[in-house]
Amino acid sequence: MTDHLAEAAPAGTSSNVAAARSERYRPHSAVTDPGAHADLLRAVGTGFDALHRTVELLVDHYRATPGGVGAEQFDDIDRRWVASQLDALVERQAGPLDAPRAPEARLGGCCRDHSVLAVAILREHGVPARSRLGFAGYFAPGYHHDHVVGERWDDQTGRWVRFDPELDPAAYPFAVDDLTRGDAAGFRTAAEAWQAYRAGLTDLADHGVGPDTPYAGPAFVHGYVIADLAHRQRCEVLLWDGWGAMAAPGDELSAAQLELADLVAELTVAADAGDEAAEARLDELWSSDPRVRPERFVETWSPTGRIGRTDLECRTTEWRTGG
Question: Distance between CA 312 and CA 227 in Å, rounded?
């Protein structure tokens, strides 16, 4: 750890500090608050099987679903608020969230929505939970797809357990409910991918939305380093939101942008490993640096082709193009 981090806490105190810090993830964020639909979340179990079954029933991936999704569902992908998602789901089919649904009664979305809904269910039950952004190497050989997973605090083991609610446990040869950390062939956070790039281990050309898209490479991952910090701070932005120091995919990163990503990545990796000083520095950076924290407005570059300015306080988006 470099010398800008304070000395680690004395042995024996780190697990207690981590448990105390996990409390911030117990209540809902503005995004995961279910509004009038809290009872629907409380009716869903908190075990992995229940979470997986429910979110898979509720959300069809707009890119991965065979045949695609319907027009109305395609517009769903810009529903960032869980309350809004639940409004649409209830309107399309009343009743329990874990009941079977016809395709037209589901939401169009992506991994972000699977994981944020799982986090919302856990928080509604009082379980500390958060979403994380990174790259998964288990969807296609030789490629690391951008991906969002969840983490839940386990009081018994005193650690964050990382899980992928989108995955069927029977279809993968590893524990999808307790993902291995730092595994390049599995899931690694955007911060871990960035550090591998800066160490010369990858050029990040194979880290992105998919090999059939231009959305990959250092500038793309740079944005995810910052967006993962937002999710870690309970600000569960859309994957196509932009603000502050984020570059557009394909841009050449400036020295200042490289330095910022290096700092955020180092602090994130250290904090994930239990370093309390790094955790405190992340909080300080988040609260004081507008380059990493979205304020009231963010730019939203929707996969629908629309480009807009989203007001996070009023929960509205003013679309400038495409809609």
Answer: 15
Under a CB-based contact definition with an 8 Å cutoff, are residues 232 and 282 in contact? yes
Q: In sequence order, what are the residues at sequence separation of 6 or more whose Cβ sits closer than 8 angstroms to the Cβ of residue 148? A: 110, 111, 112, 114, 115, 116, 131, 132, 133, 134, 231, 239
Biggest alpha carbon–alpha carbon distance for the chain: 56
The tokens 């409390």 sit on which residue?
23
- Which residues pair with residue 59 across a beta bridge? 107
Residue 91: exposure state from Cβ atoms within 10 A (0-12, 13-18, ≥19):
exposed
pTM: 0.94
Mean predicted confidence (pLDDT) in 206-223: 95
Cα separation values, 284 from 5, 124, 277, 312, Å: 12, 28, 11, 21
Over residues 119-147, mean pLDDT? 97
CB atoms within 10 A of CB 212: 8
DSSP 34: -
Question: What is the pLDDT confidence band of residue 8, given thresholds at 50, 70 and 90?
Answer: very low
The residues facing 288 across adjacent strands are none
Residue with the two structure tokens 């899980």: 163
Long-range CB pairs of 64-69, under 8 A, 24+ apart, other chains included: 69/103, 69/106, 69/108
Which DSSP letter does residue 170 get?
G
Concatenating the DSSP letter of every residue in 172-218 gives: SSS-TTSPPTT-TTSEEEHHHHHHHHHTTS--STTEES-TTSS-BSH
Look at the chain and count its residues: 323
Digit-coded pLDDT (tens) for 72-97? 899 999 999 999 999 999 999 999 99
- Please state whether 251 falls in left (phi above 0), alpha (psi between -120 and 50) or beta: beta
**Encoded tokens for 257:** 């942008």
Pairing label, strands 107-109, 129-140: unpaired
